[in-house]
Design a protein that fits this description.
Number of helices: 12
Helix content: 25-40%
Oligomer: single chain
CATH topology of the largest domain: Rossmann fold
Shape: elongated
Distance between the termini: 18 Å
CATH class of the largest domain: Alpha Beta
Number of domains: 2
Order of helices and strands: HEHEHEEEHEEHHEHEHEHEHEHH
Radius of gyration: 21 Å
Strand order of the largest sheet: 9-8-7-10-11-12
Strand content: 15-25%
Length: 333
């Protein structure tokens, strides 16, 4: 998301990217426009002994750049830029995040109404809403919605880092178990796209629930893979327990898929704005299984295009186009 935004902004502004910690996706880094100046500080994550050295590095870089705006994406970064407080702004990307230092930034952005309300409730700060965006036009759309349950696989995709306490991958596995208990001959496949420390735990859960043969752990995928392959699935799910926004939801709709999301925070907001998709009770595998079955049946009956699960017109997605996101930031700076 950040790469997409700065690749748009560098078309009309001078953009510099400072990456503080040493966890860097080298493949993603290569997609940053060459007009963007990149500074890798390589601080070891959580290493407090490196804080002073990092501060001095940042101080040298900022004096050299002399920026008009310093845009942060983590509230803890403020002390590094305290000397330039009047130039600072922060985007808050989720609900329930730490609010320390929030009041010191000159301007606060929220990625959804849910995040805006969470900030207001906990700090009294009025944040400006700017929705996250993607290059919606670059997602190859599904064009064939015919489905034969005897020969076709009902392929479900779940794109997220493997972090069940927020993302709810365990709920998806339990829902799949319930679905197959009811329909043991259903030809269904659930594909998890993403990496995380919970991989082995989720594999064990899939074995315990006897659904491992119906699950694919794809691992991390770059944006090109998602843009090109999302259309080959029948359904995207995101049963998060909490979520400030949910770019994968927009990606699913962009690829012409029905989408099932939890009735929480940002995901609900996206579904309501687009008037498409289905909402499920958070943390409720039975409800998720029921909604998946509903989408499945709409394919089998040939009624998916009239189901209300898909967006009616791709123009609806313009509100979540990254060009608009980038321009909104430039105007608000």
């Amino acid at each position: 998301m950040l790469v997409d935004i700065i690749n748009q902004q560098c078309k009309s502004a001078s953009v510099n990217l400072i990456i503080v910690n040493d966890k860097v996706d080298s493949v993603l880094l290569k997609t940053v426009n060459q007009q963007v100046n990149i500074y890798l500080l390589n601080r070891e994550e959580s290493n407090k002994s490196q804080l002073l050295r990092t501060y001095l590095k940042i101080h040298t870089i900022v004096k050299k750049i002399n920026p008009d705006v310093i845009h942060c994406h983590d509230t803890k970064l403020f002390p590094f830029f305290a000397a330039w407080r009047e130039k600072t702004c922060l985007t808050v990307h989720n609900v329930n995040l730490p609010v320390r230092f929030l009041k010191y930034y000159r301007k606060i952005f929220a990625i959804s109404i849910s995040v805006q309300q969470d900030i207001k409730k906990r700090t009294g700060i009025d944040a400006e809403i700017i929705y996250n965006g993607i290059e919606t036009e670059n997602y190859l759309p599904r064009t064939n919605y015919s489905f034969n349950p005897q020969t076709d696989v009902f392929k479900i995709i779940f794109i997220s880092r493997l972090y069940p306490p927020q993302k709810g991958q365990h709920i998806a596995i339990e829902a799949l178990h319930l679905l197959l208990e009811k329909h043991p001959k259903m030809n269904v496949e659930l594909c998890f796209v993403g990496d995380g420390e919970a991989l082995e735990m989720l594999k064990n859960l899939a074995d315990q629930k006897d659904v491992a043969k119906h699950i694919v752990f794809h691992g991390q995928a770059d944006r090109t893979w998602v843009r090109n392959n999302l259309k080959d699935f029948r359904l995207l799910i995101q049963p998060s327990l909490y979520e400030g926004f949910g770019l994968t939801i927009v990606e699913g709709f962009s690829a012409g898929l029905p989408v099932i999301v939890s009735n929480v925070d940002g995901p609900k907001e996206i579904v309501n704005i687009l008037n498409a998709g289905l909402l499920v009770n958070p943390g409720d595998p039975a409800d998720l299984a029921e909604k998946i079955e509903k989408v499945y049946e709409s394919y089998v009956s040939g009624n998916i295009l009239n189901s209300g699960f898909l967006i009616k017109d791709k123009k609806q997605l313009e509100i979540f186009n990254v060009r608009r996101t980038a321009q909104n930031y430039l105007e608000n700076y």
